[in-house]
Amino acid sequence: MPHAASSPRPFLSRARIGGMALALFLILLDQLSKFMARQMVPAPADRIEVTPFFNLVHVWNYGVSFGMMQSGSNAATYTLIAVAIVITLLFAYFLIRAESWLVALGAGTVIGGAIGNIIDRFQYGAVYDFLDFHAFGSHWPAFNVADSCVLIGICLIILDNLRQSSKTTA
Questions:
Q1: In this predicted model, what pLDDT tens digit does every residue of 100-138 receive, in sequence order?
Q2: Where are the alpha helices (DSSP H) in the chain?
Q3: So what's the pLDDT on residue 64?
Q4: Residues 6+ apart with CB under 8 A from 114
Q5: Position 122 in a domain
Q6: 117-136 burial: b if 16+ Cβ within 10 Å, else e
Q7: Nearest alpha carbon to residue 147 among 120, 123, 116, 126
Q8: What is the distance of C-alpha 121 from the center of its chain?
Q9: Which of the residues are catalytic?
Q10: Neighbouring C-beta atoms of residue 149, cutoff 10 Å
Q11: Phi-psi domain of 66 (left: phi exceeds 0; alpha: psi -120 through 50; beta: other)
């Protein structure tokens, strides 16, 4: 009988199921938050001042993160969709192979965010951004829940890698 430590983890471990469930939840949260923001913010270029450092805005992002590579052409839209799908598949691979909760949750978070923005690109040809932070005369580019998910997910995976490397050097 093989030793328990040498047996492979089941395909649907609790961590992997958790990552998949988190991805689905975040897709729904992203789409709901964008729908609600579009209802609350009246028109392009208008804003609602929530605090002295935070506004709700109405911005269609035809480019990539933070408005880079804005073109609005169909070719650019389909290229960005294809890149986002490849990234989603890469993180789905990370999720399938996840050995830790942090990697599974990080991958699920990235997948949820990426799919949230893919849905926007398919539906509108652009991604809807509505969160606008500013302070001391500087503005952070407008973003959305999906963008935050991608950043947080990558940070979780990096944190797990740092944690694992500190275990091996100790």
A1: 999 999 999 999 999 999 999 999 999 999 999 999 989
A2: 14-40, 74-97, 101-124, 145-169
A3: 63
A4: 84, 87, 88, 91, 146, 150
A5: yes
A6: bbbbbeeebbbbbbbbeeee
A7: 116
A8: 14
A9: 129, 147
A10: 26
A11: left
In terms of pLDDT, which residue wins out, 80 or 85? 85
CA distances 58 to 53, 62, 118, 146, Å, are 16, 13, 18, 16
Any domain includes 107: yes
Number of domains the chain is built from: 1
pTM: 0.84
For residue 96, pLDDT beyond 50:
yes
> Which structural domain, as residue segments, surrounds residue 89?
12-169
* 3-state SS, one letter per residue, for 49-78: EEECCEEEEEEEECCCHHHCCCCCCHHHHH
The string of pLDDT tens digits covering residues 17-47 is: 999 999 999 999 999 999 999 998 877 667 8
pLDDT band for position 99 (cuts 50, 70, 90): confident
Residue closest to 73 by CA, chosen among 63, 83, 59: 63
Number of neighbours of residue 100 by Cβ within 10 angstroms: 15
Please report, for residues 23, 96, 116, the alpha-carbon distance to residue 31 in angstroms, rounded to integers and kept in the order given: 12, 25, 6
Domain membership of residue 1 (yes or no) is no
Query: How far is the C-alpha of 120 from the C-alpha of 76, rounded, in Å?
Result: 14
Matching residue, tokens 């997910």: 153
Q: Does some domain include residue 5?
A: no
